[in-house]
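Researcher: Quick sanity check before group meeting.
Model: Go ahead. Protein one:
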Amino acid sequence: MNDENKLAPVQDFPIEKIQPTDGNRQIAEIQAQVIMAKKFPRDENEALLRINKACSRRSLAEVAQYAFPRGGQTVSGPSIRLLETVAQAWGNLDFGVREISNDGEWSEAEAYAWDLESNTMVRERFKIKLEVAKKNNVVKKLTIS
């Protein structure tokens, strides 16, 4: 076998040049989202029509609000399902929640929303105790999934 037909040794081959790292992949995905948001900006009137149409669906109306008793009062507001529907209809948004840490007793998380058109981002960190006291002194352990 002559030298021209030999394969290069594995250690000499720069594999990182053909396989992007997770960080590079994430950067490329973010850049693509921003480019697409700029190329296809939201039509606010159309978005509002989509939101109104979604809110007229019975299945969404049934889960659009939450309410629960707390300290002798009722706590209520728009549900996460309603907010997800609005964000999807509004378009060009990246949003979600990620868990930062979990020691078994407390979970620290971060919720975020990023408008890809205006490049405006809001982040909010919060801690959640992973148990809830129920009636009759019963304690229920919560899990993050």
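Researcher: Fine. The other one?
Model: Protein two, sequence then structure:
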Amino acid sequence: MSFLKADFRVQCNTSNWTLFALAALPLIMVYPIGIPMFFGVLLRNNRDRLQEPFIRAQLGFLYAGYRKQAWWFELVDLIHKLIVTSLLAFLTTEGQLTTAIVVIVIYLIIILRVHPYQRKEDDALHMYSQVELFLFVLAGYVFYKLDQAQYSARDDIIISISLIGVTIGFLALFVYQALYAAYRQINKMINRYNRNKLKKQKKAAAAGGGAGSAGSAAGGDAAADEHKSAPGTAHQKKPSQPFALEMAGRPITASNKPGTANKQNDNSMSEASESDSSDTARGDKKTAPPQSAKPPATAASAAPSNAASPPGAVPPKSAGANDREPSVSRSESASVSQSVAGDDTKS
């Protein structure tokens, strides 16, 4: 006759015990074995599409905290928990302790080799928890192997205080990492908010600068237009002559048609140029002294045109003579005129 260790009121190998055992067998196959196997098949079939949004929405809770190369680590963790919490119960007390130590050490080595988590803080916390479990199991193995007479109360107090300190240290590390993760997340949110705010300010400044430059350009154009429209401006655009005549109420005639003034200006300019050229050609006459005025012709002087001139008299200038006359002084011209008049009177 045997009894259940958890409850000595329950006798084993009875009809009631067999009924509960048969009902628990499917549940054992579903939860401790079926669920890890189901997750493993899903992850393995979709291992090349784990970064797709649809797959992440379905299976992201199994690998979101791990690195891409360690997508399978959740399965290892499930197996480790299953062994430590469930399978060890089917072994003896000494077998439970030794098996637990071996499983914990192997799992700790895997963590040290793989570094599965994305954050180093998670790797450190997980290793710390495995060290804590190892110390607890080791302390239980020591207490199990040694008789109560072989260790004193002081040793018991020291070991107990050490284990309590390790537990408190684990809790402190967990709280610190949780607060640090919250601080980093809040700081990231603040930085994101500041970046977005700075971007908005830059956009607003750029929009304001563009509007200001456009306004200044418009103001400059308006000022230029005002300057052009101001009277006395050098580059003022004058209205056309017909428009000015029409505004003044004067009729448009042939003399004030557009282009007539220009033609007159061209003619005046050509005449001026011709006068300049003639003045240049007669430059030698400008340097000569002025000639005396010829006496007015009379009938008496015009009649004896063929009379002989007295000796010493200057013959009159013929009509076909050269235009250039020699330079004669005023006294000589006066004496010649008097002699010619005297000869005419005698005749």
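Researcher: One line on it for the slide.
Model: Confidence is low (pLDDT under 50) at residues 233-237, 283-314, 316-329, 343-347.
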